Amino acid sequence: MRTEVIKANTIDEAVEGILDELKYTRGKENVIYFDGWDGLGASAVVQAVAQQLASNEKKWQWGLQFEQVIHIDCSKWESTRAVQREIAEQLKLPNQVMQMFGKQDEEDDFNGITDQQSRAGIAEVAIEIQRSIQGSRFLLVLHNGSNE
Predict the structure, then answer these.
(1) Is 27's pLDDT higher than 70?
(2) How far apart are the first and last CA of the chain?
(3) Where are the beta strands (DSSP E) in 9-146?
């Protein structure tokens, strides 16, 4: 596994460094972790990268042809299910899949699982997410805004 340190003094330089790293890792599964400047500025950089890649014009400019860019802000963590729901919404999964969330929420309420953080992902939804991205080039951008 390759470890690369992106040296940057500004948000723009950091964004450029991450986009360059994405070009280098083309066709590979990879994880890029950006901590910012002792934690400062990381969210701004991650948001800027996601915005750049969401723009078709910018994607092609950087030579990064992702079929789907999914950007999830986890800074206010709710649950694995909430992240799963956001991914499903951004992938525009069919209504029958989206309805699984409401049904599982009702079941959890009935069973006394009221703490949002205790609500786990839904296996059937995970299968549908996998099915929808299978064989495509995609980028999942998560930023958590914490030390976790």
Answers:
(1) no
(2) 22
(3) 68-73, 138-143
Instruction: Please report, as a single letter, which amino acid is at residue 82.
Output: A
Do the bridges between strand 68-73 and strand 138-143 make them parallel or antiparallel, or are there none, so unpaired? parallel
Q: Is the pTM of this model over 0.85?
A: no
Identify the CA nearest to 146 among candidates 51, 42, 44, 48.
Answer: 42
Strand partners, 68: 138
| Tens-place pLDDT, residues 47-98 | 888 888 877 666 556 667 778 889 888 877 788 899 999 999 999 999 999 9
Phi and psi at residue 127, to the nearest 5°: -65, -45
By the 8 A CB rule, do 116 and 49 touch? no
Q: Is 81:101 a contact under the CB 8 Å cutoff?
A: yes
The SS3 assignment for 32 reads coil
Which 3 state secondary structure label does DSSP give 56? helix
CB 115 within 8 A of CB 78: no
